[in-house]
Design brief:
Layout: H1 2-6, E1 22-34, E2 37-49, E3 54-59, H2 65-72, E4 80-85, E5 101-104, H3 116-126, H4 131-144, H5 160-173, E6 178-182, H6 190-206, E7 210-215, H7 218-224, E8 227-232, E9 236-242, H8 249-264
Parallel strand pairs: 3-7, 3-8, 5-6, 6-7
Antiparallel strand pairs: 1-2, 1-4, 8-9
Helix pairs in contact: 3-4, 3-5, 4-5, 5-6
Bound molecules: adenosine-5'-triphosphate (ATP) and magnesium ion.
Adenosine-5'-triphosphate binds at residues 31, 39, 41, 59, 61-67, 216.
Length: 265
């Protein structure tokens, strides 16, 4: 089986030609109140993500996925090593990334006092996009995500799946090149999640974006990623595989088995 799996590895898209969009260089992140009471959430992790990749970061609960996510988003500083996004340090250049990174959180994080369209417009307001253009762009993305007719609904009047679509529309409307998603579909029923995953991957590909998608579901990682990075606690890479678009079901099954083995070892 290991042969079958390794033969599926293909070069990462653009890996030789382009600079990584995200680079972790020997990154360690510890949490703690004192020198003697430190918890290692990420341990000497090195990882490059290249432009155009959709990387599924897969790992069990508590293995450090959100900690990595927060370091990419510039919300946390590594304790040791370096995180670079587009060649810069996201923690020290937080404002530079405005409009360049869009985030879809695990819960939709919509503002309850703003309608669907006003929520989508939020990111555009922060980028100082003029009103009419803002509205037109927000409208287009809401329609694209099947929410035409719900523009003026408040979040409380929308279902969980619809709210999550509003948050995807908000992420795409800003036209950021890098999308970060932290288990955005984990609270939805499987059918809805499946549909949104398909919409999400085709939107990322059509719009030439790079995406990091965090999940603890093997199925979701296989459906979303063109590369899967499996993490083991404390966030350390246990398996890293590029998937071809034309994977057969037997090959997919072999990868699924391998991931299962890695996660249970
Ligand atoms: N601010 C913090 N202070 C102390 N410990 C923290 C902090 N943030 C995270 N941790 C610890 O670091 C570890 C990794 O947490 P993290 O949230 O990154 O996990 P995760 O992989 O995202 O898990 P989940 O799948 O449950 O979301 C956990 O043991 C957590 O308790
Ligand atoms: Mg998490």
């Amino acid at each position: 089986m290991s042969n079958a799996v390794s033969s599926l590895a293909v070069p990462a898209p653009g890996s030789k030609a382009s600079e990584p969009e995200i680079r972790f260089e020997h990154v360690t992140k510890t949490f703690g109140r004192s020198e003697s009471d430190l918890f290692r959430a990420v341990d000497d992790l090195s990882l490059d993500v290249y432009p155009g990749q959709i990387v599924a970061l897969l790992g069990k609960t508590g293995c450090g996925k959100s900690t990595m996510f927060n370091m990419i988003a510039g919300l946390l500083d590594p304790t040791e090593g370096k995180v670079l996004v587009s060649g810069r340090d996201p923690f020290r250049n937080f404002d530079w990334y405005r409009g360049k990174i869009a985030i879809v959180f695990q819960n939709d994080r919509l503002l309850p006092w703003r309608t669907a369209i006003e929520n989508v417009e939020l990111g555009l307001e922060m980028l100082n996009v003029p009103g009419a253009q803002r509205r037109e762009t927000a409208q287009r993305w809401l329609s694209r995500l099947g929410l035409g007719g719900h523009e003026n609904d408040y979040p409380h009047a929308l279902s969980g799946g619809m709210r999550q679509r509003v948050s995807i529309a908000r992420a795409f409307a800003t036209n950021a090149g890098l999308l970060l998603c932290d288990e955005p579909f984990s609270a939805l029923d499987e059918m809805t999640a499946q549909r949104l995953r398909e919409e999400f991957t085709s939107l990322v590909r059509e719009n030439g974006k790079t995406a990091v998608f965090i999940t603890h579901s093997i199925n979701e990682a296989l459906q979303i990623g063109d590369r899967i990075v499996v993490l083991k606690r404390p966030a350390k890479i246990a398996y890293d595989i590029n998937l071809t678009a034309d994977l057969g079901s037997a090959e997919k099954e072999a990868i699924r088995e391998k991931i299962r083995d890695v996660l249970s070892a």
